[in-house]
Amino acid sequence: MEERSKNKVDETIAPSEEWIEAKKLADQRDARFDLGAALDFLQKGADRGDPNCVADLGRAYEFALGAPYDFKKARAMYERALEMSPNFERRGFALCRLANLRALKVSESVVVSQGKLGKETVYRPNLCAKDPGDQARVEEIFSECDPGDDPFFALDLAKFVREEGQPVKDAEILAARLEKPAIAELKKLASEGDGLAAWYLVDVHGSGRCVRKNDAKAIKYLRQAGLYRCAPALVAIGRAYENRGVNKVARKMYQAAADLDEPDGLCEAGLMELVEGEREKALEYFERGSALEHAPSQFFLGKCLWEEDFPISRERAVELWKKSAEQGFELAMERYAMALEATLTPNSSNREWSLCADYYRRAAEAGMDASKVAYALLLRRGLGVRRDLDESDRLLREIEASGDAESKEFYGEKKLEGTICKRDVEGGLRLLQEASKERPSALVALGFHFYLGDVVERDYLAAADLFEKAAAQDNVIGLINFARCCFEGLGVLRDDAAGEYFLRKAAAMGDPVAAGRLAAFYADGAFGEVNWTAARQWYFLASMRGDPNATERLAYCHWYGLGGAQDRLLGAHLWEQAARFGDEFALEEQNRAKLALKVDRAVREPEIDDEFRKYVAAEPIVREWLETRKIEDGATPNQVDFVERYQEIVSDICDGKIPLPTNVDSRGGTEALKALFDAYYETVEANPFVDPTAAESE
Q: Is 685 exposed, middle or buried, given 0-12, 13-18 or 19+ CB atoms closer than 10 A?
């Protein structure tokens, strides 16, 4: 029995014909070069039990070579290949890739130990896992692999040793010893048509690690990697074109990488779509990147959700920033710390402040200037960290001397407030003025100080000038406040037409305050005759953004049929919504509406019965439409589509296109439709803001 087992271990599984054919198809020098076809052969070989094919399938998923990027699937493939046989040609490669995906990913440092092998001094890396529970598994995986079996892993390990190794001198020696043979092997592979090897050589020659820096060679290898459809290379090429201003080609490269689910490609494609104004496409890319636990994608998805200004969206944004920050993404650490600080008071626990201070500290150490200011102020106050005025002053002097515009705006405001640092009006104004050269929000902040006469003498002329400059850069708050100056003739000649233009522009950008004010002007006839149709549309869009006053006014429009069809049931529901949003008048209106509905039914029976029966007819049709749309689109329809479809159904009932039911309890139908409204509005998410009167303005 033992002899048979020994023979089985000694057997080497011969590579299958599928694996040999796949290698030919993955060779750039072969006229039949086709990564997709190579992937098909690897899959066939894997199905027939060839561990070599299984290992190279892992490679295809890890590096997005003819297959979508999927590191979890890649890791599973490497583990499966190793379980299939103890002896096959690609075993050493599979071990090294598993060490990269399992051992390096969970390690936070490496201790380099010296030893003797004959007369030669050898250096060995000992990985230290972040979680002590992973240490045994890390050591087990790492002890089995030989970096000489995989030049890609050798370079990754060398980079890790340089960044995290101790002692530094020994780490540098070990890294160099790993790099030299790996680079020679990669050059050989690249000359044999391996595009992935070419991609690794881009970094080698571009950074000048272990070889002389050579941009020409880096570009040559980048082109080779791009032709190989190596997803990270496509991203690098896209960035090069974007830096040159050739956005059309850059976008194409990012999308090609995103099609392979390459995380950086997904994020860059999303950012490019934002630049092009395609917000929904951008969110789709960020969602896919976030699902792959890509820290930048999580951050930018959170940023987009935060801007929607809905509580449910902002809650998710904070969760995404937390996940991104835990991976060490600098922007996310700063944003998450800001979100934490916004929930704290001086009486909050030291543990809560300590967590906030730690994220600010880490972001500051990564070079985030706004975090330096925030951390310096926590040091000054001793919140979450030991009080240290010397370190605080050092950081703040650094910001004043060379900080970015955002940090100067932040620190300038704190100086003007004088609440958590020494008040310095002159210094604060100077910092805000410096920041205003780059940030329209700083222009707005200065404008408010002059408009309100806060810490400076009131000066409407200066305020209007600052608001106008911010408005010229499409800053929403600048647009709203310059519109106010135009309406009231403060700092500029009174001009209602200009005020309407700037307010409309801010509303069309999705600002609920601007939309609500614009609606109120139309309702009051400030622009000529009263226009309830336009008012109702703008109230609706402001209500979608959670504006309580606009929701209360929209309920009023539906209740009395102003600007459109009368619908008391929807009006009553909207008053409930407004009350939940916090409108102080809505609760009274809501109770009055409920009473009015009951009185109407009691006093006007049976005449009113037809009005109630239309809700009985509408409810199942609306419910069926809603469920169908959810199945077809995979999401709840937005509020525009929902309300439009509901009103179409009611209109068809009123026109006789849909018959009214007879011999039914109309009160039950009313309650059923009301329950459907409640269920819908609890789950619906924000939708893109669309100017409802754009055609009219044109």
A: middle
| 647/630 Cα distance (integer angstroms) | 19
Q: What is the mean pLDDT of residues 546-560?
A: 83
Tokens of 497: 């037409």
How many Cβ atoms are within 10 Å of 72's Cβ, its own excluded?
A: 11
- C-alpha angle with apex 378: 376 to 380, nearest 5 degrees? 70
Pairing of strands 120-129, 107-117: antiparallel
State pLDDT tens for residues 417-451. Answer: 887 778 888 998 999 999 999 999 999 999 999 99
Whether pLDDT at 9 is above 50:
no
Neighbours of 117 (CB within 10 A): 7
**Contacts of residue 138, Cβ cutoff 8 Å, sequence gap at least 6:** 102, 103, 106, 107, 127, 129
Residue 12: per-residue pLDDT: 62
H runs (alpha helix) in 545-665: 548-560, 568-581, 586-604, 609-633, 639-654
Calpha distance 264→284 (Å, rounded): 14
Q: What is the CA radius of gyration of the chain?
A: 32
Q: Please report how the helices 405-417 and 425-435 are oriented relative to each other, as an axis angle in degrees rounded to 10.
A: 160
Phi, psi of 9 (to 5 degrees): -65, -40
Whether 568 has a pLDDT exceeding 80, the answer reads no
Closest by Cα among 371, 366, 416 to 395 = 371
Tokens of 86: 């103890």
DSSP string, 470-510: HHHTT-HHHHHHHHHHHHHTSSS---HHHHHHHHHHHHHTT
User: Which pair of structure tokens corresponds to residue 608?
Assistant: 């009113």
The residue whose two tokens read 């002890």 is 143
pLDDT, one tens digit per residue, over 332-361 is 999 999 999 999 988 899 999 999 999 999
Domains assigned to the chain? 6-199 (1.25.40), 230-321 (1.25.40.10), 592-697 (no CATH)
Residue 615 has pLDDT above 80, yes or no: no
**What is the arithmetic mean of pLDDT over 123-138?**
84
**Alpha carbons 507 and 14: distance in angstroms, whole number:** 69
**Whole-angstrom distance, CA of residue 596 vs CA of residue 275:** 50
- The pLDDT, as a whole number, for residue 678 is 66
Dist CA 485 CA 453 (whole Å): 15
Count of all residues that appear for the chain in the document: 698
Half-sphere exposure at residue 386, Cβ-oriented, CA atoms within 13 angstroms = 3
Dihedral sign, Cα of residue 258, residue 261, residue 262, residue 268? positive
